[in-house]
Amino acid sequence: MSRIQKLSLPKTSQLWQHVQPGDFIDGYAVESTLSPERAIEVGLSMPIWAKALLKIRNTIMKPLGVKTESKSFGEGAIFPCTYQSVDEMLVGTDDKHLNFRICVLRENGLIHMATWVHRNNPLGRIYLAVVMPFHVLIVRDAMRRIARAAA
Questions:
Q1: Phi, psi of 113 (to 5 degrees)
Q2: How would you class 44 by CB atoms within 10 Å of its CB: exposed for 0-12, middle for 13-18, buried for 19 or more?
Q3: SS3 track for 82-133
Q4: 141, CA 20 to 30 Å: which among 34, 40, 49, 124?
Q5: 90-136 pLDDT, tens per residue?
Q6: 123 touches 16 (CB < 8 A)
């Protein structure tokens, strides 16, 4: 299985058009021959423990008026597709507390995954600080599943 690398998202990505000073953006990569669409499908098919965390998040955030859709991606989902090409896919949404996108980019034999977050207000800053440890676990787990699916 391919080793997960912490790498900056290549500057060729459409995601960079969203990034403003002070925004959060991370980047990971694994060797893979998957299409971006298949990598998103594999990466966002969350394990039971991640689904449980999302359910807790939705229960806490719903009274605050934050989006709490339960489907991961596709029509009416928390991660709708906002851009797609042969080698890249962006999913995510804009909400009152923050705007976010998840990018999957295929380039030079690697699948890159990056998350961009623009915090819109204090709730967005607090939210990102609280979910960050879980975010890292979920993304690294997604990258492991993408690496395994390509093997």
A1: -130, 130
A2: buried
A3: EEECCCEEEEEEECCCEEEEEEEEEECCEEEEEEEEEECCHHHHHHHHHHHH
A4: 124
A5: 999 898 889 999 999 999 999 999 999 999 999 999 989 998 998 99
A6: no
